[in-house]
Design a protein that fits this description.
The protein has a domain of about 230 residues: Alpha/Beta hydrolase fold, catalytic domain (Rossmann fold), CATH 3.40.50.1820. Helices cover about 40% and strands about 15% of the residues. The protein is built from 15 helices and ten strands. The strands form two sheets. An eight-stranded mixed sheet has the order 1-2-4-3-5-6-9-10, with helices on both faces. Strand 3, helix 3 and strand 4 form a beta-alpha-beta unit. Helix 5 crosses helix 6. It is globular, with a radius of gyration of 20 Å.
Length: about 400
Amino acid sequence: MFRVLLFIVLLAFSQAIPVEVGSASKKLYKYDEIIKDAGYSVETYDIVTNDGYILELIRIPYGKNGNSSLPKSPVLLMHGLSDSAIAYFQLGPEKSFAYNLADKGFDVWLGNARGVANSRRHISLDPDNEQEKFEFFDITWEDIGVVDMPAMIDFILEKTNQEKLHYIGHSQGGTVFLVLNSMRPEYNDKFISAHLLAGVGYMNNFPNLAIRTLGICIDLIYTVTKSAGKVEILGPNWIKQLEDFAAYNARNGVNGNGNNCSRSNIGHIIDSIFNSKDLLPGAALKQFVHYGQNIRDRKFRRWNYGVFNIFRYGRIAPPEYDLSKITVEMTMHYTVNDKLLDEQDVLAMVKDIPKAVARKIPRETFTHADFVIADDSKELVVDFIIEQLLSNNL
């Protein structure tokens, strides 16, 4: 069952992110070197949350030409599920969000959420220890929203001596923004503006049939998978997981007669990935399952403990996130070709958020991942948002 979940997750969510493999107990990826090689100044900071996770914050304080004399407001960019800060600079200096913002004088900050990339660290828990990994990866995107986000925001504002910042979040980066400002509404006052790029929230019309079908048995999948010791999806150890998947196919008689899941094809994929070092930062299994619960229940709400909800929340069903509490001036960017977020759900969120507006990307074939990987994302997304930030910059 884990293999079924892994295969569907890989098809639905994965993005190839160019990174360099390293020790899981340390910072995995040399993001600072990539930014330096592109000709930009870079700073990195380790932020410790109140529950012990060590988060890497990356700062590009000014543009390539060193235009730091008239700095603009700080901008925090947060990545999506199984992604990392590199999402915002992987396209290089000409097209990437981070570099373009810095070149316009903004103070750019890139977050890495708990459990991914260079935030796969903790003051006492080892994510690769067979016992401690269960506690380390016992996290959902709500933890990122109510714990990681405040830690990053407060650090940035203190470091820059500013009262407010701009926010840009892709996919899960949008989810955690919605969670933060609905559960801790005092943080609304710390944002100048927000731009959510395919920000996932409401799921009443979730468009992906395969994942929607999987959601029916998501709790059983989670129980069985966790009992098998699998609590991290992708991440630095996912080559071994794919090898297990290939072995499973072989044991069950899947051959190479045109079947993409054959042992030979999977082996070829593994070799290609390993040789190119296109590895994914990873995320907790529980983050995927939390989305699965909401897709199944057609609700945007907290983790569902089943019969234990009454003890956890004092009610039978988990509380829903109240988006009417979000008062930040927000633009929700979406595309009609998104397989993980439906236009109707975006418009429903905009209706419930007092100062939100919707913006449809003017390319019908634009996808969920294209916000951070497409060559024309600069033309269709980046340039528009920078113009908006310049118009209301403090």
